[in-house]
């Protein structure tokens, strides 16, 4: 069967439907079949895998996923693409397109409706770059049992997500994601394989669910609050940042210092040097005095 993603076929489809790209929706379509096959390879799909895709566009990646996976559910926000997808994906009965903003989607309902007969659920997507982080966090925070995410995004965000302590790119985003997932860059992707070409370089990352949390925490949200608060001003010490970010932190400096003492972490360090495990221990020690009561 002819691939959707060749430059010629893509142009033909766009012309047939008089489709014009919307920059505001992050519409940069892939026109390189090898890159698409490589993304699918990294996703490790079998006929027992269910896939959630975000933003099928004209179906370039969806098609390659559908050939390998059992069931594909793909969310597209742009209604103009629905008739296109109905046409291009007609050979693939295992694809269900849902016309919805992924951020509004009820993922638990999707699992119940489409994925009761698969062994695992994986997210595969060439993400719309304007909304990369909220989409990833939605998948992780929703607690839906997703085994892996193999997703394309701007390289700069990929670097932050996969960063190790002690590097410039390491920050609260690295911690929020690596708390749940092992993260690695699977491939770097040049601008030339997109239509239209984006302004930035891209990368595909692979996030795989950790079998065990890296640290036992009393409250995950509080861990993320402490880690975010520790990076407000990267050049400042973690003590300084926490005094500003924790409730009444300035007045309760001694209480904060006690938490450092208890955990054996030097308050003069910068946030970027702490591992997730250290952030977890620190958050647990700060929790009794600084967590905000649930509303
Ligand atoms: N998968 C196609 C490909 O690789 O060629 C298109 C990828 S393009 C980078 C992103 C797609 O996401 C576009 O089709 C866009 O309309 C869609 N999109 C943008 N925001 C979305 C959202 N919040 N929810 C669902 N789809 C969205």
SSE inventory with pairings:
Layout: H1 7-17, E1 29-30, H2 33-43, E2 49-54, H3 60-68, E3 71-76, H4 82-88, E4 95-99, H5 107-114, E5 120-126, H6 132-141, E6 148-154, H7 155-162, H8 172-178, E7 181-189, E8 194-195, E9 202-209, H9 220-230, H10 238-245, H11 253-263, H12 276-290
Parallel strand pairs: 2-3, 2-5, 3-4, 5-6
Antiparallel strand pairs: 1-8, 6-9, 7-9
The protein binds S-adenosylmethionine.
Structural account:
The structure is a single chain. The chain has 295 residues and is α/β, with parallel strands linked by helices. It folds into 2 domains: 203 residues, Vaccinia Virus protein VP39 (Rossmann fold, 3-Layer(aba) Sandwich); 71 residues, Orthogonal Bundle (Helicase, Ruva Protein, domain 3), CATH 1.10.8.100. Helix content is 39%, strand content 18%. The chain has 12 helices and 9 strands. A 7-stranded mixed beta sheet has the order 4-3-2-5-6-9-7, with helices on both faces. A two-stranded antiparallel sheet has the order 1-8. It is elongated, with a radius of gyration of 21 Å. 39% of the residues are buried. The mean pLDDT is 96.
Q: Which molecules are bound in this entry?
A: S-adenosylmethionine
Order of helices and strands: HEHEHEHEHEHEHHEEEHHHH
Which CATH class of the largest domain?
Alpha Beta
End-to-end separation? 55 Å
- CATH topology-level name of the largest domain: Rossmann fold
Number of helices: 12
Computed structural class: alpha/beta
The helix content, as a percent range, equals 25-40%
Oligomer status: single chain
- Strand % is 15-25%
CATH architecture of the largest domain: 3-Layer(aba) Sandwich
| Strand order in space, largest sheet | 4-3-2-5-6-9-7
Low-confidence regions: none
CATH homology group of the largest domain: Vaccinia Virus protein VP39
Mean pLDDT: 96
């Amino acid at each position: 069967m002819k691939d959707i993603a060749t430059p010629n076929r893509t142009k033909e489809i766009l012309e047939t439907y008089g489709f014009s790209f919307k920059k505001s929706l992050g519409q940069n379509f892939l026109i390189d079949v090898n890159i698409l096959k490589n993304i699918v390879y990294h996703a490790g799909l079998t006929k027992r895998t269910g896939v959630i895709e975000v933003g099928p566009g004209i179906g370039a990646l969806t098609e390659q996923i559908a050939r390998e996976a059992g069931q594909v559910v793909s969310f597209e926000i742009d209604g103009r693409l629905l008739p296109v997808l109905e046409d291009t994906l007609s050979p693939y009965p295992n694809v269900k397109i849902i016309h919805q903003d992924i951020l509004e989607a009820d993922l638990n309902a999707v699992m119940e409706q489409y994925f009761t007969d698969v062994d695992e659920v994986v997210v595969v997507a060439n993400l719309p770059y304007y909304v990369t982080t909220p989409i990833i966090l939605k998948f992780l925070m929703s607690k839906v049992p997703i085994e892996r995410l193999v997703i394309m995004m701007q390289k700069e965000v990929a670097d932050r997500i996969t960063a190790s302590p002690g590097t410039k790119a390491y920050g609260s985003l690295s911690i929020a994601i690596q708390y749940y997932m092992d993260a690695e860059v699977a491939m770097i992707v040049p601008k030339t394989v997109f239509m239209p070409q984006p302004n930035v370089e891209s990368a595909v990352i692979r996030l795989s669910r950790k079998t065990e949390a890296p640290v036992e925490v009393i409250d995950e949200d509080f861990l993320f609050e402490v880690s975010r608060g520790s990076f407000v001003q990267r050049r400042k010490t973690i003590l300084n940042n926490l005094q500003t970010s924790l409730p009444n932190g300035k007045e309760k400096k001694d209480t904060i210092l006690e938490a450092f003492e208890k955990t054996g972490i030097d308050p003069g360090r910068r946030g970027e040097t702490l591992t997730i495990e250290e952030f977890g221990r620190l958050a647990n020690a700060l929790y009794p005095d600084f967590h905000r009561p649930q509303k």
